[in-house]
Specification:
98 residues, mainly alpha, globular, 0% strand
Length: 98
Amino acid sequence: MQHWLDDDAALCSIEILAEAVERACVPGIVELRMLRNALREALRSKTPEAVKTAFGMFARVDRDYRRRIAHEALTLASEQKGRFAPRERAVRRTRLVT
């Protein structure tokens, strides 16, 4: 049975991480290219297996690059803050007359 990733917040975090990798990508660093491609595949296919592969690739990237990517991702996330936040429901209040 195939499961699909349909959680908007999870997809948004993958999208943010993919953009952060794109910003931190250095020509000639194969691991970063592979990570970028794995994240793109995770966004395209939306399967848990693709997501696991992408995050496994992230774990294999050099620590300094992971820090750079994490910094970029936090910056991007703060720019998109509230994009998938739960919406507040309007509460209708009635006034009691005494």
